[in-house]
Design brief:
The protein is α+β, with helices and mostly antiparallel strands and about 400 residues long. Helices cover about 45% and strands about 10% of the residues. The chain has three domains: about 5-215, Alpha-Beta Complex (Lambda Exonuclease, Chain A); about 235-255 and about 260-290, no CATH class; about 330-360, no CATH class. It has a five-stranded mixed sheet. The protein binds iron/sulfur cluster. Iron/sulfur cluster binds near residues 230 and 241.
Amino acid sequence: MVHEERAHALLSASSAHRWLKCTKSARLEEQFPDTASDAAKEGTLAHKLAEMKVRNYFNPADVSKRKLTFAVKKFKEDPLWDDEMLLHTDTYLDYIRDVSIKLPAEPFVEAEKRVDFSGYVPEGFGTADCIMVQGSTLFVIDFKYGKGVPVSAEENPQMMLYALGAYEACKFLYPVTRIHLGIVQPRLPDGITDWECALEDLLAFGRHVKERAALAFSGEGEFSPDEKTCRFCRAKKQCRARSDHNVKQAFNLGGIPPLITNEEAGQRLLAMRDVASYQRDLQEWALSECLAGNEVPGWKAVEGRRSRDWTDMDAAFEKITKTGIVEEELLWEKKPLTLAQVEKMIGKKDFADAVGSYVTQKPGKPALVEASDKREAITNKISAKEAFQEEI
Ligand code: SF4
């Protein structure tokens, strides 16, 4: 599989969470280039390594140890290479291996499998990182190298589309009745999630998708601005629906009661969660327009605050010490690596074995998150039990 050639259909599986909700987004996005960020390129490199490892483990006749070693050597020449890719791809392989070992018989496994789900989505195809089938269970496993946004396997539309494609390809060979989705996002602390559903649930999803995809393909249906839906949309800076929605959230607050209630605060925070990021996107776009020489009434581009840097730091330091202004040692500071940097350098396991007992967890600063967040809610309120203990 040539990873750079992971061509994208108009209704790609990776953007399904968007076009399923905002059916008009797919055609609107067509007007904007699909540029790959450095993070995406880094992910592509990690996927190449992951694929080679899976193929080496399950099919050594296809990818021998020697071939894998040679491939790793080549990958290391890439400027985006980082040794931690070896650890993270191991976590992915360990997950697949653990799933396969627990099965009653040897599964059929394919890495980087092209799946065709055009029976549900016009021109729909994609590449699943790993497909595994054993008995009546179809496994679809995805390796996510990003660490910005946690992705859950639960009702994940991208994975469900891959599952539909994989099911269509293998339904005559395997009596599939259960679908298991697994996401391995190894750069996040709780980055592994699993979810299972019955084949009927997957097919019901397929019927829903078919309706929404037909609308999205013809550019019909509705715009549906929302923080999560718009986050990675290529049209997000200029989309009028998102703009109108956020302006309304920011300014159209209805009546002006003297004090708002907790209930209203909660509702308003939920309604306005995309306003700040929308403002940043709009500023970025307006700046690019000003720099291109186009007028954005009321705004202009200026040079930001200047920063100073040495033209030749060694020569400057030498001059300072030679003239006796200060000793050379005073010009340098010795700083320890952070705990995370040391862990990254020596690897999670060696870190835990060698210095795990010296690590303590400090409580994090209280943060406001949505009620759907999986973390346990905290409070400063003293419970009756604590109050009683204080008194005795
Ligand atoms: S920015 Fe949001 S509302 Fe606009 S097209 Fe994209 S997803 Fe839809």
